[in-house]
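Translate sequence into structure tokens.
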Amino acid sequence: MAVTTKHMSVLVVTLGILAFIFGVIAENKKPVAGTPITGKNIVICKYPRDPTIALGILSFVFLGASTLAGGLSLFYPYKGKSVPWPTLFKNTSFFVFFLIALGSTGLAAAMLLWPTITEHNHVIRNVYHNLETTCPTAKTGLLGGGAFLALDAALFWFVSLMLADNAREDYFEDVKGVDVEADEVIQSA
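Result follows.
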């Protein structure tokens, strides 16, 4: 069974939806704060066991997989026919959506990684010398925002794939037309 743009579209969007789901769940499971335990000149923060860090990493991984599938699907030689990449980038709509997909992917990755790494650091480095600490957690809203951007990025990769498919069809029609004209010129001479 040959890989088609429909298969790749489903893969890209499915991975993007999974990144979105894991990011939203990570945001909802994130604790508001830890429990401070005061010692002699230190405060040890005890954080509840929660899946925020694992879910944040999973969301980032699925965003990366969606991006990889989306990027590779644009230049994949469907039915053994490849299109030169400069030809695809001559299509203005494709180029604009490609850049938007790249930008939203980068922003989504940053918004997913930043709170995930911050939350991990808070859990690992839980001893504070400031006796007035409130046992902080990662900034609220970043994981959820990153999840929505991950979904947006997958949809932009999907639109880019559809535009690349249109540009691919136009390219092969132009190449086919040039070959027919060349054959007619040779036969008439």
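Note: Confidence is low (pLDDT under 50) at residues 180-189.
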